[in-house]
Amino acid sequence: MSSIEEEQEEQEKQEKQQSVLVLGGGVCGIQVALDLADMGFKVYLVEKKPSIGGHMAQLDKTFPTLDCSACILTPKMVDVARHPNIELLTYSEVLAVSRASKSFEVTILKKSRYVNEDKCTGCGICAQYCPIEVPNEFDQGIGIRKAIYVPFPQAIPLIYTIDKENCIKCGLCERMCEAEAIDHNQQPMKITVTVGSIVVAVGFQLFDAKNKQEYGYGRYDNVITGLDFERLVNAAGPTGGHLARLSDAKIPKKIAFIQCVGSRDEKSGNLNCSRVCCMYAIKQAILAKEHIPDADIHVFYMDIRAYGKGFEEFYTRAKEEFNVKFVRGAVSEIVEIPETKNLIVRVEDTETGELLEKEFDMVVLSVGLTPPSDSEAIENILGISKGEDGFFSSPDPQIFTVDTNIGGIFIAGTAEGPKDIPDSVAQASAAAMKASVALVQLTQEEKHVEK
Amino acid sequence: MKNEEPKIGVYICHCGMNIAGVVNVEEVAQYIGKLPNVVVAKHYVYMCSQPGQALIREDIKQLGLNRVIVASCSPRMHEPTFRKVLGEAGINPFLFEMANIREQVAWAHMREPEKATEKAKALIRMAVARARLLEPISKIEVKVVPRALVIGAGVAGITATIDLAKKGFEVYLVEKKPYVGGHLALLNKLYWGKDASEVYTSLVKKLSHPNIKVLVNSDITKISGHIGNFEVKITQKPRCVTENCNLCGKCEEVCPISVPNEINLGLDQRKAVYLPLPNCYPPKYIIDKENCNSCGECLKVCRKKAINLDEKTREIDIIVGTIVVTSGFEPYKPKGEFGYGKYKDVITQLMLERLLSQNGPTKGELIKPSDGKKPRSISFIMCVGSRQELKEEQGEKPLNAYCSRFCCSSALKNALLIKERYPETQVYIIYRDIRTFGRRHEELYRKCRESWITFIRYKPEEPPKVTEKDGQLVVKVKDWLFKVNMEISTDLVVLVEGMIPREDTADLQAKINVTRSPDGFFQEAHPKMNPLDTFTDGLFIGGTAQGPKDVIDTVYQASGAAAKAAILLSRGRVLIDQVTATVNEEICTGCGKCTKVCPYTAIELDEIKEVAKVYDVKCKGCGSCSSTCPVGAVQVRHFKDAQILTMVENLLPFKED
Ligand SMILES: Cc1cc2nc3c(=O)[nH]c(=O)nc-3n(C[C@H](O)[C@H](O)[C@H](O)COP(=O)(O)OP(=O)(O)OC[C@H]3O[C@@H](n4cnc5c(N)ncnc54)[C@H](O)[C@@H]3O)c2cc1C
Ligand SMILES: Cc1cc2nc3c(=O)[nH]c(=O)nc-3n(C[C@H](O)[C@H](O)[C@H](O)COP(=O)(O)OP(=O)(O)OC[C@H]3O[C@@H](n4cnc5c(N)ncnc54)[C@H](O)[C@@H]3O)c2cc1C
């Protein structure tokens, strides 16, 4: 063996000893974990939900190519599950991080699933027999799940979880489980790991459309959000992919999309653009047309921001091929007609100056992206700073977006500000690059000390 | 293995309701289960899920399967998933076949479930036939030379280079121009007053790293080889100024030749010996041989003896394991629209950047190029060369249908800056949509509105017109929102140009073999899941070479591309599946037709044996050679004629063999 090779192997071995923590298992965290693991580092991927996948797992198709979201995401999820360098800690949260000389000591809480992870085979018999039905968060509460559940069939890991809040302890699951995996007395576990670097990829939270009271979300059955829409058109969703009204299961013939709900809006407390809503609304308008070819579709917008590769072309297709009507104007109010549950949209068409009142069967709110739900807690635990907009922020956001004010900690994906999947994935790799450099520098410093 | 009786397991995926909602999966499984050699045929809700994979693994163990078929989606995403399952269960991953009954059946024939079911049967029957003839494929191991090449030293290339060097790898950074930095070097400010030249200076400082070799004034002449081992030929043009140069500038003073300065886009002149930019890297003068008349005046005044007019072109050969392509973009050049070229005071935004820049032709003083006076009124016209609408009569040249992504924010940045520096100036923004989607860019937009910058929205059908009236530029435009026809007397018109693929893209493409998207920029392997890989193994892309974007998005993309290269370099070796061409030397006549059609130069004529010879690591198994061979001597492993023909034969129903 040549000396170069030996050196390389040596380097590889040393890097293997180095570990890194990735926080958040959305598409961004998944990419960070895979890249670092592929470089030979040991990766702890911590996800607070029972499965990795994040928001992308909930989407139906993706703009502008209309690839099916789960179909392109699940191969990467599977890769995470089988990667020898990745230790996947789902249904887990980081409790504390302390700095131990150059590295970080991380305390992780592994919440109880009340199901033995090593024994559960994911067969699903338990859920078949469980008598308790609750709204399924994964389907935006439109469908139902049982008190013992997996969020979706391709979940990684495919291990059931008992939701203790709703479980009545009837014991049926325990009796039916052939693998004897149910453990009602399972205790949460604390795990401590030492890592050389941390990447925060905890994603975003959807703007709560209820805060925009004049649009009636939560009050009117047929006003839904963009993410609700994704579940409604998805073949694996609560309606089996039938786009129907929630009030009466009728097929909507007139659908309105309302842009900038909770974005670019002082009243909602978010002045910024959420970067993905124009495109996802265009995508959904096209999907609606594919489901209901004779549907009449309007998109009410301020500016259409079709900025990425193939986006403008996609926008043009929506107008020309699918005859989606784009109306520039801010919607002031939505009113429900109690008898029909149809919706009157009040809007000033800024192109004609006309005040319009239009009736629709269904209204989809293109809600914006807001900072991740745990941003406060993570800020406290890690000490990394946020920008004025509440998303995590680099001290030099004009150039190096993935850095933080703390050496060795990096940010990526929508936790760093709204962005679409391609940008989240590219930024994930950038964070992996920076983390790997931080880890290499640690090794070099250690070597130096040893000498 | 060849003599072993095929024992085939077939797995039909419901894909939730995607397939099962149309295709009668139970019926298909029953039918397929009866075909010869099929040991088991099952259907399951999601074959790609963990239990789905476990099902296959178990059956391989229990039933001794030696062939597996999954009938589900397109092989594009999940073929690797299932191949790995086979590998884990101890059988060769290539004894696997996929039948696409989702895209090609369930989705295509959603409203004809019965016919769809029959088609699903046919496709799987064909897969079964092929599976019988499948052969194991071995892997070839390729060592990865621990060195990277980065092509193009804009902000993307510099970033990728620094990252790789810090990670511990040797990097060659090759740049065509005599200085690094690309367009970043020409900008005045980035958003929010961030000084572009400060960013530039701090970045290029990091290039002084023992792992980095910067070759400016250089061009890639040829790349051959393959992932892990690319042989690269580089030509470095003479600079004619040596390391000794101390930037005293005497040479420039005495040089008698003046030519338009391309760095300032012709807004001023430079000499034949010149320093491209005061802070440029490498900080050395250069002699522009095309314009130099070798008068020797500079030689006389150079005390450091740093000038060598006889310097020759250098040829540099290197071997690298991976290549990162960061060759950037070109600003769109207006073709006479909006009075460009006709009126001197109609300029592009890049010219404006130069006019505002401290190191520009006016040292940052904003003037009208026509008379050097301060403009009192400025109009920005947006989307010049972007979002062009295709009209019937404009068929001759492809137009840029895309949005250039960086220009709205960039123009607003400049509008605001002008308002701050020259508060009395009237600024108009004539736009279609304002696309300030970047983080905090909406704030930029609001700030512009608060600063009394006038926004006028035009419709693409009625674009603004730039004319001249009594020596005064006038922009005529219909405000689409207020429905008024406006005539704006303006001193300076700034055309906010978009980004286009570089003119020499085709030339580079021929050398690196990376495909291009319909917009002309280099194409990523998957627009969402693999935005930094290309279809050529070992080559990665980042920055504006992949498509328009600003510095922020360029930089993280470049670091991401560096990560991909780092993975390869860290591993030190790659395993390549030997799905490659083979030559039957007994039949081969040595006609050489195959060597001419191979796009990868992977097949050559063996001079001694007079037969074709395949280089496995270069071969991509595309089959061009195989279909060209007049005698059928070339076959591609895994796609042999027999393996394909049996599928065709089995397409017809009720044919039992
Ligand atoms: C309606 C809608 C439609 C969209 N359509 C498209 C589209 O068509 N194409 C496209 O490109 N983009 C689309 N997007 C955007 C896309 O969803 C995002 O770009 C992408 O999901 C971002 O991935 P992420 O990993 O950054 O964040 P997320 O998907 O939010 O993932 C973050 C993960 O971190 C976990 N997490 C959070 N806090 C913690 C914690 N404290 N500890 C551990 N884990 C934690 C979360 O549970 C989650 O799994 C759409 C968005 C919406 C809302
Ligand atoms: C007028 C204008 C204003 C802008 N304002 C802003 C702003 O305010 N904020 C912002 O963030 N962004 C702004 N941008 C965008 C910014 O300039 C780009 O995002 C950035 O410069 C892209 O960097 P790059 O490295 O991808 O490409 P480039 O800067 O184009 O660099 C590519 C380099 O590769 C070299 N090269 C190409 N081919 C080869 C080859 N075959 N061999 C060797 N070398 C090669 C080129 O010579 C060049 O040096 C602006 C752009 C313009 C035009």
Would you kindly provide a written description of the structure presented here, covering whatever features stand out?
The complex is a heterodimer of chains A (451) and B (657). Chain A is 27% helix and 24% strand. Chain A contains ten helices and 24 strands. Chain A has helices spanning 3-17, 27-38, 69-82, 125-129, 172-176, 226-233, 277-291, 311-320, 375-382, 421-450; strands at residues 19-23, 42-46, 61-62, 67-68, 86-89, 92-100, 103-110, 133-135, 144-146, 148-149, 161-162, 189-195, 197-200, 205-206, 223-225, 254-261, 296-301, 325-328, 331-337, 342-348, 355-360, 362-367, 369-370, 409-411. Chain A has a five-stranded parallel beta sheet. In chain A, strands 15-22-16-17-18 form a five-stranded parallel beta sheet. Chain A has a three-stranded antiparallel beta sheet with strand order 6-7-12. The longest helix of chain A has 30 residues, at 421-450. Chain A is globular, with a radius of gyration of 24 Å. Chain B is an alpha/beta fold and 657 residues long. Chain B has four domains: 8-137, Rossmann fold (3-Layer(aba) Sandwich); 147-237 and 313-328 and 502-573, FAD/NAD(P)-binding domain (3-Layer(bba) Sandwich), CATH 3.50.50.60; 333-500, FAD/NAD(P)-binding domain (3-Layer(bba) Sandwich); 578-637, Alpha-Beta Plaits, CATH 3.30.70. In chain B, helix 1 (25-33) runs parallel beside helix 5 and helix 2 (50-63) crosses helix 3. Chain B starts with 7 loop residues before the first strand and ends in a 6-residue tail after the last helix. The interface between A and B is large, with 86 and 82 residues. Residues 151-157, 174-177, 182-184, 187, 190-191, 219-220, 326-329, 331, 349-350, 353, 406, 410, 413, 502, 508, 543-544, 549-552, 554 of chain B line the site of one flavin-adenine dinucleotide.
